[in-house]
Amino acid sequence: MAETRSCEFGISAKKRAAAADGFEGDDDIFVAKKSMLPTLAVAPPSWESDPAASLASLRHEFGEHGGVNMSIEASATFTVMEPETMRRMFTGELGPDRDFFIYSRHFNPTVLNLGRQMAALEGTEAAYCTASGMAAISSVMLQLCSSDGHVVASATLYGGTHALLTHFLPRICNITTTFVDITDHEAVKNAIVQGRTNVLFFESMSNPTLTVANIPELSKLAHDKGAMVVVDNTFSPMVLSPARLGADVVVHSISKFISGGADVIAGAVCGPESLLNSMMDLHQGSLMLLGPTMNAKVAFELSERIPHLGLRMKEHCLRAMEYATRMKKMGQRVVYPGLEDHPQHHLLKSMANKGYGFGGLLCVDMELEEKATRLMHHLQNSSQFGLIAVSLGYYETLMSCSGSSTSSELNSEEKALAGISPGLVRMSIGYTGTLEQKWSQFERAISRMEVGSTLFNKN
User: Fold this and answer.
1) Residues in the chain with pLDDT < 70?
2) CATH class as words, domain 62-306
3) For residue 331, how many other CB atoms are within 10 A of its CB?
4) Do the first three CATH levels of 62-306 and 309-457 match, i.e. the same topology?
5) Which superkingdom does the taxonomy of this entry point to (predicted)?
């Protein structure tokens, strides 16, 4: 039999024996069931509503030699003990659920472990990790929509996603999108055409305007008309759990908060096991055939960071709330869902997982791009409050003027429809330094801006 290591966290570090490879013996563990294959990273059923509790309920993977951290399976291809085994693997009789692997574009043990963590985090049956967030989004859309397919999507989306839906999919696949104000439920309902619309797509918190979507109500509207609901939850891991609120599929750019280090590019698709398995189908699967494969070394890095994601998110959110409150008192035009005057404050409060706050991003609307540019210049170069850079979820505060950066794919009319002001500065709030230290740096930058404006007006 295979050697195992076990402890109170579960069983792991299974070493496949020759008898198992040859499919001999009577033990049920080696009986392949075609109905179960192919097998993805399936999270055990969890009754926990708190994402941290769900993650803690997962089996702990040990290293091959008993290390507290799992081993990295960096191989692209895998051996078998007998030639007959390979034939059975390709016919689907043997698969990853029995510790049989063919090729890492298909399945890799280290990447599958990260998938189990992502499924637990989002409360879905299964998850598959990809090379980028855009790979996750595009693979889902191509699997759920055929030629002449139809998508209804929020008018306010990340620029890359907007470009995918506006330009690429119509040109390549004849998949068209109707963009709507996601807060106008009547408009959403009217845009979804029963029998034609395949997907309702939106972000849980919109990029960059931080509009919060009513996930339960939108999910009901879509399901009543036979459409699938796909939610990008990149802005609010731990804070919101879209699948628990009614969404069918949750996508992530893991490069952001989940990574936390701004050093890897990665994504994930979290959803029903049946959908994820169809995406890995040898003949029709978008993940299998397009090959947006995550590197095992990246998967290992990320799997080591997820256990402290909850702690990091709480600090991101705590500081964002404090800074937003103080900025508002200072007279700045602040957009933050944690503030009482945010249009969806009470909605977010009703949907959010308790204890994680209202998100780690805030916006300061300077109205004019020139004023936004000066603010960011002083925040970075005069006071060291943050860094002028795109992306989010880093331990340092990152700032960008969205209209001319991450939303630059939208034309002027589309930006206006999305509510993106030319001077909107998006800030991903970090947690380095003390809160008071960083706040004093913000105040110093504002003071220098005001002095500069006074001198300019005198001249």
Assistant:
1) 1-48, 403, 406-407, 452-459
2) alpha beta
3) 8
4) no
5) Eukaryota
In the chain, how long is the greatest CA-to-CA distance?
A: 90
DSSP 382: I
- Taking alpha carbons only, the member of 73, 83, 76 closest to residue 23 is 83
pLDDT at residue 45 in the model:
54
Rounded to an integer, what distance in angstroms lies between the CA atom of residue 287 and that of residue 281? 8
Q: Is the separation of the CB atoms in 151 and 177 below 8 Å? A: yes
| Predicted local distance difference test score (pLDDT) of residue 452 | 65
Per the omega criterion (within 30 degrees of 0), is the bond before 96 cis? no
pLDDT at site 313: 98
- For residue 299, what are the contacts with CB-CB under 8 A and spacing of at least 6? 108, 110, 111, 113, 114, 129, 266
pLDDT of residue 176: 98
Cis geometry, peptide bond prior to residue 38 (ω within 30 degrees of 0)? yes
pLDDT at 41: 61
| pLDDT for residue 129 | 98
CATH 3.40.50.300 fits 309-457, yes or no: no
Return the H-helix or E-strand segment holding 297: helix 296-305
**Residues 291-330 pLDDT 10s:** 999 999 999 999 999 999 999 999 999 999 999 999 999 9
pLDDT of residue 4: 37
CA-CA-CA-CA dihedral for 164, 388, 394, 339, to nearest 10: -90
Please tell me the pTM assigned to this model.
0.89
Q: Give the position of tokens 């002083």.
A: 378
Reference 280, options 103, 110, 413, 420; nearest CA is 103
Instruction: Give the span between the Cα atoms of 225 and 403, in whole angstroms.
Output: 34
Listed by start position, the domains of the chain span: 62-306, 309-457
pLDDT for position 11: 31
Whether residue 158 contacts residue 104, with contact meaning beta carbons closer than 8 Å, is answered with no
SS3 per-residue string spanning 407-457: CCCCCHHHHHHHCCCCCEEEEECCCCCCHHHHHHHHHHHHHHHHHHHHHHH
Tell me the three state secondary structure of residue 459.
Answer: coil
CA–CA gap between residue 248 and residue 230 (Å, rounded): 6
